[in-house]
Design brief:
Blueprint (H helix, E strand, L loop, with lengths): L1 H21 L6 H22 L4 H24 L8 H24 L6 H6 L10 E4 L1 H6 L1 H8 L5 E5 H11 L4 H20 L4 E4 L9 H12 L2 E4 L2 H9 L4 E3 H7 L9 E9 L6 E4 L5 E4 L8 E12 L4 E7 L3
Parallel strand pairs: 1-2, 1-4, 2-3, 4-5, 8-10
Antiparallel strand pairs: 6-7, 6-9, 7-8, 9-10
Helix pairs in contact: 1-2, 3-4, 8-9
């Protein structure tokens, strides 16, 4: 720091001495000294700003400015036939000489990262195909439908399972609760099967976010840092990730999207299997798992019934169909 301050002091002194001796503005020494101090201050300010700019960008700006100046000189030489005594021609020459180096300086500075050694070396390497990565969370692995979806070929790219997701899955498999334990083991079995048989590549990666404790927050941070999509069926994770601009592939949304459309007035045949929440209601399910609430259907439990759809309600959990027994 002291050497830098000393160098700046010597530089200001040198500029002031030159201005005092040479008098570039004419007039008295005070005017020239003030001019030299202002000029030295501007140069030091620019030098300070350069400390915040990468060397590649600085080199790119210099290279772009030099190329712009060369093109300006070539254009000026090409206009040798013009009348140099005409002020409009002089102005055009001056404009070209100022404009092209300026454009080259700005464009070169913005594109300076292409001058980094690894970028330059990459230009001479064969380009590998772009790979799409989908980060799996614990819930979608336990759910199991991802394996069937991958077999259909609808999921492209590479499925990525971070170590912290695998660790959480193992904790679920080691749970004292038998239901959670069975779900965790099922998830591990599905993941092993996908690694072995699935046509979609599955990679276990060591990427982690040490300063974040929650798994969902780790997934979001990792997806932001690596520009990857999250594949899940967790509604809360879906909403939080979307709010932060992360692409989310939700298995439940896919399942709802491929269900056949049902419109009010259509007739269906359903088996009523249980009572509904409201008095007199009966509940049945279509083959794709869609719930049908039959008004007055409680007396038809364990019976097949022809119903007419009255309305369709889309909820967070999925689609619900309300119907009434068909009157013959």
């Amino acid at each position: 720091m002291r050497w830098s301050a000393l160098a700046r002091l010597l530089f200001v002194g040198g500029v002031a001495y030159c201005a005092y001796m040479l008098r570039p503005l004419g007039g008295g020494p005070a005017l020239n000294l003030a001019f030299s101090l202002a000029l030295a201050g501007l140069i030091i300010y620019l030098e300070e700003r350069l400390h915040q700019t990468s060397l590649a960008n600085v080199f790119g700006a210099l290279l772009g400015g030099a190329c712009g100046l060369l093109v300006a000189r070539l254009l000026g030489a090409a206009l040798f036939w013009a009348n140099t005594g005409d002020t409009r021609v002089v102005f055009l020459h001056s404009l070209i000489l100022l404009m092209l180096p300026y454009i080259g300086l700005v464009l070169g500075g913005r594109s300076g990262e292409w001058l980094q050694p690894e970028r330059l070396a990459g230009m001479f390497r064969p380009q590998a195909p772009v790979r799409r990565y989908r980060i799996l969370d614990t819930s979608v692995i336990i759910d199991g439908r991802i394996a069937d979806i991958c077999e259909t070929g609808f999921v492209d790219g590479t499925l990525v399972v971070p170590q912290f997701v695998l660790k959480e899955l193992q904790q679920v498999a080691d749970s004292a609760d038998s239901l959670r334990r069975n779900r965790g083991r099922r998830g591990l079995d599905i993941l092993a099967q996908m690694q072995k048989d699935s046509s979609t590549p599955v990679e276990i990666v060591d990427d982690d976010v040490p300063d974040v404790s929650e798994v969902d927050a780790k997934l979001i941070t990792l997806a932001q840092a690596r520009s990857k999509a999250i594949l899940t069926n967790d509604f809360n994770l879906n909403r939080v990730a979307e709010l932060q601009g992360i692409r989310v592939l939700n298995i439940n949304s896919l399942a709802n999207a491929v269900k056949p459309a049902v419109l009010p007035g259509e007739e269906l045949r359903v088996r009523v299997i249980q009572e509904g929440k409201e008095a007199g209601q009966g509940v049945g399910f279509l083959d794709d798992g869609t719930m049908i609430v039959v008004e007055g259907g409680v007396r038809y439990i364990d019976k097949d019934l022809d119903v007419a759809v009255t309305r369709v309600l889309q909820t967070v959990a999925g689609r619900m169909i309300f119907a009434q027994p068909r009157l013959d």
